[in-house]
Amino acid sequence: METPELGSITKVDPREVWPDEAQDFTPWLAEEENLGRLASTIGLDLELEGTEKNVGPFSADILCRDTVDDQMVLIENQLNLTDHGHLGQLLTYAAGLDAVTIIWIARQVRNPHRAALDWLNSVTEEEISFFGIEIELWQIGSSPVAPKFNLASKPNDWSKTVSRASGRDGELTETKKLQLDYWTALSERLEEQGSQVQPRTPRPQHWANYAVGRSGCQLTARVNTRDQRVAVQLALKDQEEAEPLFHLLKQEKDAIEGEIGVELSWLPKPDKKVCVVQHEWKADPMDRDEWPEQHSRMRELLGAFHRAFSTRLRELDASEWSPEASERARIEES
Asked: Which one-letter DSSP state was computed for residue 327?
């Protein structure tokens, strides 16, 4: 048996690839593929809003939007070791841009700054998150250089979730604890079985949201303990685009339902400015013995919804729809 030939792996200085942060690294990171790499590291779904955004006399490197909760995400780049100046800039930018997720990327996050980010995560509200990310470059032989993002600091989401749901000195109610356990178990199922749906931090509430690839749109899993029903749905929430996107998708109703494999309920809700496409079924979320079956079905449906809707939503142009055209189509169907 021949001994396989193995290459050697070499760590590359980021400055060799990106000599200038603003001119080289920021444009690279702002590209969709690279932003996706960062997003998968921290468990978010990011959509670029812009680069070099002005905040008073300063300029923030990258501003994104989290497509699941529609909140702003600020990214500050530093290809050296972290320093006090950039820490101050982060806080200035976050306040000026109303960003609730702040990401500090550096070649190395020094211990004092890691401690500062950990402290900020411990004292701020649940909605505000600070991440410290270290960027590394690796190369095997003469192969292309490969980037790697490493988490140096992140929020303690479970601690924040419990604190907010119960009050700082209280405990979760039995209902809230059940909800938190329910979504935690679903998240574990999604992770274990490699679902394309990115798990989010579980919260003690009757729903859980997931990214579907377009701002103002999300996948949602819901439970109704009173009526003993559970559902997976696509929620279209953008004030201007929800109704147009709903009707454009409904034009492909038969194809979409064929791909997902179940009949869907198409629910326009103009009074709430939210349009919903969902599949609902009878199940008791209070019965922990039923959870494996419920979560298995949720995982399958979330994946099917993501496959059926994500590409369509990215490609649809809401301006192509008009109320008049929709009314004509409704009359023709009736």
From this structure: H
